[in-house]
């Protein structure tokens, strides 16, 4: 099973990808998580990536494609992957097509999560993330038992710098301009499945399982 999870920031891609990847025993490849790890490590590469992320802009295609190429080439990615937050531009989608072809692999489905802008704003400004295990919470919709600590691992919860309202608005603009064109790109290839991204995470997970298995 090789899937792309597509949707605006806050659509629930990460939440759903974590669930399905664990169920299927396949890697969850989230470029945002990889870039944040690089930024936290303080390398020159990470610091440069962070300067784009903090502004709500996209990191240059060749940088992200390089990360994904390395990750897809590893042994555990052979049996399947969920790509979350990649591709985000048509150039990245084209690069992905080439990468998979070189590895003799095919993309099975692109699952698009449809969520209203109002809901996205609410979700992103209330998002909290565990620094240790990456579990994502929401202050109102899926609150942690304690405000500061992760329910699963006791790690520290934090608010992403780019989840401030001003940066969220910028990210939504970037999504509309640079990522939304991927809907037509994948529709024309017969790979796109859209699903309603609003409702309980469990109900959405059911819809995702059906979409992933359909065909
Ligand atoms: P969200 O969960 O809100 O959709 P991500 O964690 O996927 O956000 O991404 C956070 C930031 O990391 C993006 O705003 C962008 O700066 C950078 N980023 C992540 N994936 C990509 C990508 N495929 N191409 C370019 N930049 C990316
Ligand atoms: P993305 O990876 O697409 O940016 P996330 O999975 O990080 O999105 O979800 C964004 C925020 O919305 C998080 O705070 C998460 O807890 C919350 N969230 C995820 N799914 C739902 C849902 N179905 N209903 C309400 N809130 C949700
Ligand atoms: Zn945790």
Layout: helices, strands, pairs:
Blueprint: E1 2-6, H1 13-24, E2 28-30, H2 31-41, H3 44-54, H4 61-72, E3 81-84, H5 90-103, E4 109-114, H6 117-125, E5 127-130, E6 136-138, E7 157-158, H7 165-179, H8 181-187, E8 192-196, H9 201-213
Parallel strand pairs: 1-3, 1-4, 2-3, 4-8
Antiparallel strand pairs: 5-6, 5-7
Bound molecules: adenosine-5'-diphosphate (2 copies) and zinc ion (ZN).
One adenosine-5'-diphosphate binds at residues 9-10, 14, 31-32, 35, 52-53, 56-59, 64, 85-86, 88, 92, 162, 171.
Structural description of this entry:
The chain is α/β, with parallel strands linked by helices. The chain folds into two domains: 2-115 and 167-213, P-loop containing nucleotide triphosphate hydrolases (Rossmann fold, 3-Layer(aba) Sandwich); 126-163, no CATH class. 48% of the residues lie in helices and 15% in strands. The chain is built from nine helices and eight strands. The chain has helices at residues 13-24, 31-41, 44-54, 61-72, 90-103, 117-125, 165-179, 181-187, 201-213, and strands spanning 2-6, 28-30, 81-84, 109-114, 127-130, 136-138, 157-158, 192-196. The strands form two sheets. Strands 2-3-1-4-8 form a five-stranded parallel β-sheet, with helices on both faces. Strands 6-5-7 form a three-stranded antiparallel β-sheet. The longest helix has 15 residues, at 165-179. It is globular. It starts with a strand and ends with a helix. The structure holds adenosine-5'-diphosphate (2 copies) and zinc ion (ZN). Residues 9-10, 14, 31-32, 35, 52-53, 56-59, 64, 85-86, 88, 92, 162, 171 line the site of one adenosine-5'-diphosphate. One adenosine-5'-diphosphate (ADP) binds next to α1, β6 and α9.
């Amino acid at each position: 099973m090789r899937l792309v999870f597509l949707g605006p920031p806050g659509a629930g891609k990460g939440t759903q990808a974590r669930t399905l990847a664990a169920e299927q025993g396949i890697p969850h490849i989230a470029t945002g998580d990889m870039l944040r790890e690089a930024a936290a490590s303080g390398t020159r590469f990470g610091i440069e990536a962070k300067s784009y992320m903090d502004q709500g802009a996209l990191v240059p295609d060749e940088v992200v494609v390089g990360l994904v190429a390395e990750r897809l080439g590893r042994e555990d990615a052979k049996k399947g992957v969920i790509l979350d937050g990649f591709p985000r531009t048509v150039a990245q989608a084209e690069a992905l097509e080439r990468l998979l072809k070189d590895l003799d692999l095919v993309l099975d489905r692109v699952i698009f999560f449809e969520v209203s802008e109002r809901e996205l704003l609410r979700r992103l400004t209330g998002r909290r993330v565990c620094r240790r295990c990456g579990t994502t919470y929401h202050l109102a919709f899926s609150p942690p038992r304690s405000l500061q600590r992760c329910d699963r691992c006791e790690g520290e919860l934090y608010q992403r710098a780019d989840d401030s309202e001003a940066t969220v608005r910028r990210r939504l603009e970037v999504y509309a301009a640079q990522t939304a064109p991927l809907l037509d790109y994948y529709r024309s290839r017969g790979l796109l499945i859209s699903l309603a991204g609003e409702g309980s995470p469990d109900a959405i997970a059911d819809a995702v399982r059906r979409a992933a298995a359909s065909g």
